[in-house]
Amino acid sequence: MEMASTAPGSARVSRAGFGVSPRRTSAPSRIHEETVRGGETPSPARETRALPGILRAGVFALALAGSLSAADSSFAQADPATEPAVQAVAKVLPAVVNINTERIVRRRVRDPFEDFAAQYFGNYRSRPREIRQTLQSLGSGFIVDPAGYIVTNEHVVQRAADLKIEVTMNDGKTYNAHYITGDSKNDLAFIKIDAKADFPFINLDHISPNLLGQTVLVVGNAAGYGSSISRGILSGTKREISVDEIDYKDLLQTDAAINPGNSGGPLIDLSGRLVGVSSAKMAFTPQGVPTQGLGFAVPAETVRASVAQFKIAAQNQPSPRPKPPENEATGSPAGRLFGLQLQNLTPDLTDALGYVQGRGVLVSAVEPESPADRAGIRRGLVIYRVGRYNVSSIKQLENLLARVGSGTSVDFTIGIVRANGRGEQLETVPLTAR
Predict the structure, then answer these.
(1) Which stretch, 45-54, 310-319, 379-388, has highest mean pLDDT?
(2) CATH superfamily entry for domain 215-302
(3) Nearest to 274 by CA among 190, 206, 186
(4) Per CATH, which fold does 331-432 belong to?
(5) pLDDT of residue 397
């Protein structure tokens, strides 16, 4: 019986914490009453053993609430605008520029038509043919002086008399720049843009300490995408590499992505200070082994020393003269205005081709996308008349075109007149000078 009475009591204790037994309420009431009357501390009852469980639940609830509060605090502190990398990029980006260069290359080549003529006339030689090619390249740079002086790589803006350099700012404004000087040994160049207001610039008085392992950011015109950012660390210093048989020494190494178009752009630290100038990326070792994360930059110390010398050269350099418009360039009027390369019809050549003697000028080549090309004129045809004047030599034809300006329409009578009356195919084609 005692065992039977003890078991229910034990059951009541195990459930006391959940308040499901109506009998447990009387004991605490008596204990409380005796405490009030007698002033003595009651002895612990078995029901009080459940109190630590309640305390544990309360402590867990407080801990959970504290962790949620800490999580909310951590979320609040993770505002992207406060990240050092974001602030560093915002600091330097107004001074970073995209560079687009355009170079016109002219070269003279032997006309393939001579191979045909040589079969009949031995060492026959015609007037050399001139070919023009437009070469474009993309790169980056950054302003180092409020007057508009820009540092970039020498290989981005290689010096040339006919080089066109266009600079685009981060806000989309475009300027024409002129080349001042460069240092091929360090692959650095100095160009300049002009405006009435001062330009934002990267201060070279305060450069990065360049510590191994520090975070670095590449800023520039990667693959033509302006304001492109990549991130990595400073992996090494005093590296030596060879590019196009040119040896470069004391370069910085980084695993931050350097892509085509980044050349000449700044490599910065998380304070926005200059680490170096992005210069090259090694895709393969000299043995042909593929590589990853091997980019190289010219150190900021070298850049600062070079800029000091560049500014001295800029002070001693005369102001650049404006280039003549393209329609004032040297060359024959027929080629410059209409895209025609011409050749005199000598008696021997005329006989070989079966054309009528003493008339016309042979079209030896037509420049692609020129007025002559768009009009359908092809190599091998003969120009017999310009306007209302017959022509029989290049000199005579060019004298007629000497005063023709851009936008002027000129009638060319073109075709083939066979010798001995064997046929005549002529057509008058109007061409508008470009």
Answers:
(1) 379-388
(2) Trypsin-like serine proteases (2.40.10.10)
(3) 206
(4) Pdz3 Domain (2.30.42)
(5) 92
Mean pLDDT of 326-345: 74
pTM of the model: 0.55
Report how far residue 156's alpha carbon sits from residue 168's, in angstroms, rounded to the nearest whole number.
Answer: 15
Q: Cβ-count burial of 389 within 10 angstroms (0-12 exposed, 13-18 middle, 19+ buried)?
A: exposed
Q: What is the pLDDT of residues 226-239, one digit of tens each?
A: 889 999 999 999 99
Identify the burial level of 240 via C-beta atoms within 10 angstroms of its C-beta, where 0-12 means exposed, 13-18 middle and 19 or more buried.
Answer: exposed
Amino acid in position 434: R
Q: pLDDT-based confidence at 37, cuts 50/70/90? A: very low
Helix (H) or strand (E) holding 102: strand 96-109
Residue type, 185: K
> What sign has the CA pseudo-torsion 277, 283, 288, 289?
positive
Q: Do 215-302 and 331-432 share a fold?
A: no
Q: Could you tell me if 143 and 201 are in contact, meaning their C-beta atoms sit under 8 angstroms apart?
A: yes
Q: Domain segments of the chain: what residues?
A: 2-75, 215-302, 331-432
SS3 58: helix
Identity of the amino acid at 355 = Y
Query: What are the start-end ranges of the H helices in 197-340?
Result: 300-315, 333
Which residue type occupies 174?
T
